[in-house]
């Protein structure tokens, strides 16, 4: 039944490929660049972006970067290498363990006095307020995501290349990503494609099947999976989001139809509304008549 519902989301892979290849080429080259760099996680999303960028710019102009942490799965590393070799792109590895652990090992200065503002999980007094005492698995995951993006943007600067993002439509609508981490990029070829559609496109491009079929995971900590975090499968989320966002169906009528569980609709609506700030540039207060990104949208306003 779930598979039949998802057929509504099926895409013409050749047409979508043509659109995305043209998008990548145009958006990168209009900046004066002709290369991209991206993080290769070993998952389907980054693997597909590598294939698409290679098709758009030539494999020699694409660099995938493996960015493991000390607890990262060896499978993630091997799958990232497999994707790079299959796509024919350049790839390198940078271990972020020392950089990320440097945050956790540090203490705030002795004058720190914010016990009413920050809940310190270890109960440390302000005089010994450590960064590590504020961390759990997901908070550490945010540190790792931002450390990885720091490396990618450094490589982008020294190679005069664009950072390519790998977040899909399902993740973006639900806000399932780290602001200024994996949600930071110059272009994003996948942001209008649901996970179901990515699987179709990945098979069309020859992404290795073991990467396509494994459980999606950001590999933030051992045993972590996307669907475990979200509480629903990607198939369930894709279908619900499609009905709510693309088909613009009334949530109440959708509940009455019995096609989507009420708790899934409620979850999606709360995430779509609450995570809007992750999908746009930070709001600027309107003071003048030409407010950036609102009444002044360069380059449109300069007839370019």
Overview of the structural elements:
- This protein is mostly helical.
- The protein has a domain at 10-220: HUPs (Rossmann fold, 3-Layer(aba) Sandwich), CATH 3.40.50.
- Helices cover 47% and strands 5% of the residues.
- The chain has 13 helices and 4 strands.
- A 4-stranded parallel sheet has the order 3-2-1-4, with helices on both faces.
- The model has no long low-confidence stretch (mean pLDDT 90).
Shape descriptor reads globular
In the predicted model, the low-confidence regions spanning at least 5 consecutive residues are none
User: Strand arrangement, largest sheet?
Assistant: 3-2-1-4
The CATH superfamily title of the domain at 10-220: HUPs
Total count of helical runs of at least 4 residues: 13
Largest sheet: 4 strands, parallel
* Strand proportion: under 5%
Which fold name is given in CATH as the topology of the domain at 10-220? Rossmann fold
Helix content: 40-55%
CATH architecture of the domain at 10-220: 3-Layer(aba) Sandwich
Give the distance, in angstroms, between the N- and C-terminal Cα atoms: 49 Å
- What is the C-alpha radius of gyration, as a whole number of Å? 21 Å
CATH class of the domain at 10-220: Alpha Beta
Mean pLDDT: 90
Compute the number of strand runs: 4
Give the H and E element order.
HHEHEHEHHEHHHHHHH
Structural class from helices and strands? Answer: mainly alpha
